[in-house]
Structure prediction request, 794 residues.
Amino acid sequence: MELTTVKEALQIVLNNSEDFGIEEIDFLHSSGRILKENIVADRDFPPFNRVSMDGIAISSTAFNKGIRAFKIEGIQAAGSPQISLKNSENCIEAMTGAVLPKNTDVVIQYELLTIKNNVATVQLETLKEFQNVHLKGLDRKQHDVLIPKDTLISAAEISVFATVGKAKIKVAKQPKVIIVSTGNELVDVNQIPAEHQIRRSNVYALASLLEKLHIKAETAHIKDDKEVLTSKIKVFLTEYDVLLFSGAVSKGKFDFIPEVLAELGVEKLFHQVAQRPGKPFWFGKKQHKTVFAFPGNPISTFVSCVKYFYPWYYKSVGLEFPKSEAILAEDFYFKPSLTYFLQVKLHQENGSLFATPITGKGSGDLANLVNADAFLELPANKTNFAKGEIFPIINYR
Amino acid sequence: MELTTVKEALQIVLNNSEDFGIEEIDFLHSSGRILKENIVADRDFPPFNRVSMDGIAISSTAFNKGIRAFKIEGIQAAGSPQISLKNSENCIEAMTGAVLPKNTDVVIQYELLTIKNNVATVQLETLKEFQNVHLKGLDRKQHDVLIPKDTLISAAEISVFATVGKAKIKVAKQPKVIIVSTGNELVDVNQIPAEHQIRRSNVYALASLLEKLHIKAETAHIKDDKEVLTSKIKVFLTEYDVLLFSGAVSKGKFDFIPEVLAELGVEKLFHQVAQRPGKPFWFGKKQHKTVFAFPGNPISTFVSCVKYFYPWYYKSVGLEFPKSEAILAEDFYFKPSLTYFLQVKLHQENGSLFATPITGKGSGDLANLVNADAFLELPANKTNFAKGEIFPIINYR
Prediction:
């Protein structure tokens, strides 16, 4: 069977992204979601001429006439309606965040004042225009777009939602995902495996990788029984947008997944990718349902998820998948003509990112994942990879 | 007043970290938490001689005697108890993940076989020792530490917890945090502010920054009234481990926080840091209670949280705070003798991280946070910062 290259496989996956629509959620719980509306300024920012240092507000005209001692007429507190300076040669104490009092145009900070008997005296030669005043509309104008649609939301965006009064915001709806393991050798986490059994772990790794994308996936396990697989997957195809499988896609006698999917009308878009680990990866579609059938080895499932599912999800919700590169810190040799996802430990030095190989014992060596941070993607058409060369990196932490 | 340097301030903050103890949680919901026990292998990995390719299991002795056609005796499926090869010149079909059948020591993959009339024929000259067999204990031995205490948990660790049957794991308990805004100018998100008012946003920015650390903080707002502040903060000091304030720490007439905290017996460890933004930052302790009183300007609060609270939290839960650096992409000039937290946009090129200044309109320009990604920390003892120079970076995305 002809292997699909990694580049082709990724392109096919991306060409099959899906739009899951839009929902409205509470702004405070939107971190990590993707904004699906433009956020505009509901008023100017600042919305008024805003005092930006604690001190006295005066008229610069009085100052320029030579006046240096100002009788205090009152206080302009933050959160109080604007008051007015009555005598242009007096001053008003004004607090950070307050509206600049009417008939004043500069604020002199307390650090430059002495106050005695309700008179503030300054020693300055000159003033800057609008000193310590943050002018209305200087930052942003009413109706300006503050955050464009298709932005990944973080704390910064959340504070802007609050400022413009967007208690509810429109975000990309998440796909409904089920993660399915197969394999009669698997028992659950709280069970003691017999000699020939092991515990399920891939579904939890996948669930956790999806949680990083704020997708709450469900999980299921099905024994290697063709009839049971068929009837269950049939239901999953109606109830979920995305099915992620782990295992049963290779050449074994009980690797029923490709056959069952075909019988259920899921179109195979590729099977077998020129990569290590993860060669038996199967990908297909049935109308708007997307099926990623990853090989069952732990590292294969893990790398396939971050290499293919992550960019597919980003494309689906309208985001560019962030590309990153790292510098190989040691020479490395890999002969087969396959793209090799090398496990590496990352460290940063002088603004550059270095990747040190942590090869482990192959695709079954789950524990090695915790010793590494990322996969360095080494191209198929090379055998010798030299220290200092730069390759794409997928950081899974 | 003498300003505390950024370095001194950070050191004081770190010297005042706190241990919040340990709790046991469900392994599947532990991503982002800090492991507080060693995770050890409950058995060898793999736990048995494991077939790693689908094919036939044979005895290499037979092969070395010249035999190339093997009658199929049976199938060893994954998840079935180990069976035995009865006639050493026959074979057993063996599936990936299965126990290697007794009396066999190599597996020849289906790709190298032809099977006809229940006889598998191979064309090979030689075999590798234990070909396609993942030997018991090769990856890890029983009782090996797979994950050490004080590890930040991600999907990789979660899959290892599952494998060794740790359904419950011990993690660092989170501090109980309340985030308090002050300021009479503030109204809530769902209200329409009057001309002289603005909406609360800092508490939500802080809540979201803490959510990134998996801390669920509570929020409160108190008007600028000394009596109310005193009675409420008194209660907070009994009910929470950490109090984060935003505002009322500068020189204004209604900046009651330092005074109120002193009256309530919170010891001031520093007030005023030689930094911009965030100069009025106040930090103190009362026994095991920690108080961060950040200045009220949005950018000041934001940068103080990531620069001081984040490393304090990491230290408290037993983690090293990850240090990162970026390369300044443009010349920059800053005169005051203060550490300047320059807002920057990051991009990566050839494995190196570059920071482009996005200065905005000062510490009140909240909307600028969404245009940038990070703060580049420019030292106080310099004025001219040249393109290509490397400085510490705090990425808040």
